[in-house]
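#struct-pred

JT: dropping the chains for the assembly here, can someone run the whole complex?
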Amino acid sequence: MTDHLVDADAPRDLHAFIAGLPKAELHVHHVGSASPRIVAELAARHPDSKVPTDPEALADYFTFTDFAHFIDVYLSVVDLIRTPEDVRLLTYEVARDLARQQVRYAELTITPFSSTRRGIDERAFMEAIEDARKAAEAEFGTVLRWCFDIPGEAGLESAEETARLATDDRLRPEGLVSFGLGGPEIGVPRPQFKPYFDRAIAAGLHSVPHAGETTGPQTIWDALTELRAERIGHGTSAAQDPKLLAHLAEHRIPLEVCPTSNIATRAVRTIEEHPLARFVEAGVLVTINSDDPPMFGTDLDNEYAVAARLLGLDERGLAELAKNAVTASFLDEPGKARIAAEIDTYTAGWLAP
Ligand SMILES: Nc1ncnc2c1ncn2[C@@H]1O[C@H](CCC(=O)c2cccc(C(=O)O)c2)[C@@H](O)[C@H]1O
Ligand SMILES: [Zn+2]
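RK: done, full complex below.
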């Protein structure tokens, strides 16, 4: 909500190009995507909550002093989601916001443990997200897939519960494609989650932990070697380790970069210091993502504008960036080819005299 984060420096026609560009979003959190309107509406239903009921006041509420403060605020919003109907509405509205930005495909990170421990029935939870997924695809044409993540700081009980919900054939939703790990990294070493990732991978899920967002490169190495990460959420601190950058480039392990998020949570001091350009120079496949867009006063379009400025990209460069996300996605090959072709057609039409 902090509007100083919105990138006003990119040329206007580049903004218009980005707005129409077909895109894929690979790193966006379910609860973290709730629009100010939805958050305010849910807060009004629950007067015991400290979350403001006025969408305007949310801008201040969503200004963070550090990463721990961000997680505190995030959990106060998680507390507002109490019924399967809340879950269905949130998911459907998130899809609507994505569709508005020409997002054709999104992998949404969901933390089912946070909902089941707050008393939402697990079957009703799965039905709610699946109903919303199917409605969104039919009505908006946006394909949604799920990543179930362990909230690492909630301990191994949360890892066990997340692995169970993700691998039990009677529960696991059709849209589930990957398994993740989020929350604070400090004091939450990645290797302890290996058995849960092993189970998820054995059940056919892709491994996509957050790593190196708020801790150093060793966390990223751990995510690669212990959790068999196929993509890295953030990976910001990889910039400190040339060997790691070379490894990511050689093995084509994409980074899910979320520039504005890193500034808003104070993981990176200023946007000028963001390592995005160093990743590209090292040959790493980077994707651009929004993480928790309304909480960070951003959206995916704005993240592309920020990336265009940091990388000095024109329309063709932006189209390549959008195609990186398609390449790095867990869509099937025909699905990837369809969106890539759409990006090419759009770009050619835009640049035609
Ligand atoms: N930028 C981010 N970087 C990392 N994660 C991010 C980011 N944005 C959003 N998240 C989400 O925050 C959750 C954290 C939840 C958590 O720590 C916790 C701890 C104790 C209890 C409970 C509970 O629910 O009772 C939850 C993660 O699972 C993740 O999905
Ligand atoms: Zn994240």
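JT: nice. Residues 122-140 form the longest helix (19 residues). Residues 327 and 336 are 7 Å apart (CA to CA).
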